[in-house]
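Why run this: before we spend reagent on co-expression, it is cheaper to look at a predicted model of the complex and decide which construct boundaries make sense. The entries below are exactly what would go into the expression plan.
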Amino acid sequence: MKKNEMGLEEALDSLEQIVEALEEGKMSLEESLDLYEKGMNLVKLCESRLKSAEKRIESLTGELPADIS
Amino acid sequence: MTQIFTVSELNLRIADRLEGDVRLHDLWARGEVSNYLHHRSGHRYFTLKDQNSQISCVLFRNNGLSLDFEMADGKNVLVFGDITVYKPQGRVQLVARGIKQDEGLGFRYLQLEKLKKKLAAEGLFASERKRALPRYPERIGIVTSPQGAALRDVLRTLGAYPAKIIISPAQVQGEGAEESIASALFALRGRADVIILCRGGGSVEDLWCFNSEAVARAIFACDAPVISAVGHETDVTIADWVADVRAATPTAAAKLAVPDVEEIREYLSTAQTRIMRSLWNALERKEERLEYIKHAISAKRMLVLVEEARQRLDYLSEGLGASGARRIDCLKNRLELARGRLEAVGPDATLLRGYAIARTDHGLVLDARDVKPGEIIELILGKGRLQCSVIECITKEGSEKEAKP
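The model came back. Tokens follow.
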């Protein structure tokens, strides 16, 4: 994982916070719009994360049997 | 109806019943040898017992030939054979077809209990130290045999969840398994968010390495939470006690390790709806506020403003007072005067009295000699104008008439 790449957990955590903050509704409209945009981007990010479920199996020592990996 | 048996008939019946039960054939029994007697005939007689019970055993000469250890009282053995009834004495007995020395399992269980106590005292099983599993692990470490079915179960169950899977191969039974498992766990240090330690079902001996101190300490030292899944649900090893979470099977371990992808998808879609609805609500709230402000401005604030303006106006007009009114009257008078003078100076009044102004394109006509007969002149009257053709120009010197065509 690259440093700037947000993991699924981090993304989902931020998303949760944003949803809660938005639902609390204590911010200005500008802030709401900003959070809305961020939230939607996080949803997209998570969805793409889930889609890119390519199998990334590796073995620390030795070769894996052919039916794995 | 009461049937009366002879003793022989009764024992025959019991024998038929027991010997006809397949579950009492080809069985293994574990226990300790006592009353051992190696008869001159070559047959061996003994009693197999545990803490609470005992059963007669016999190992006939031919079956005893393959025995690879010295039988003796107090030995722990595993006996393979069938249950029969020795009818002359009405005695149920185990006819052994093979006997293996039980590798001190009794002793090993004692050792195990000791180890459990020691590790418990050190806090390795303490529930306070159990770590919570990460909700969304990005790196899943698996310690198991690459050849085992357990690994395939785990991989299949992890399924579509997007995480990196790091297999740390280990030998999960036999000589050297303990060290292999311990070092495989150690190798995952810093590389995994959660670790699954698993192997499929097997005999107690096969699973015994999971009862070792080395494995227990290796699990305890892991920097990521460990899920153990060793053997079947009924097999509980020390590894299971130390692990942060114990799963009944490798498949169950994999299920515990990762969230359901479908659940995440669902959450995402709800999150999306919630975000949109919140924004919508926020907008509506702002709109309401705007409405409120508009209302406040129009109904109240504006009234206040208007009231203020009116007061200011009143104040100003009062200030103007008499002098203002006088100034206006004066202006009116001056206006009337100016109009009168203007009227006197201008030609309008004169014209209205019957005078006219004659003019051509060149200017006013003041002298009859300025025009020629046939020329067009304009007469401006008190009301309206006339376009006229000159017929005759009459001067002191005489007259000039329009030439006849």
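The beta strands of chain A are 56-59. Chain A has a mean pLDDT of 79. Bring this page to Monday's planning discussion.
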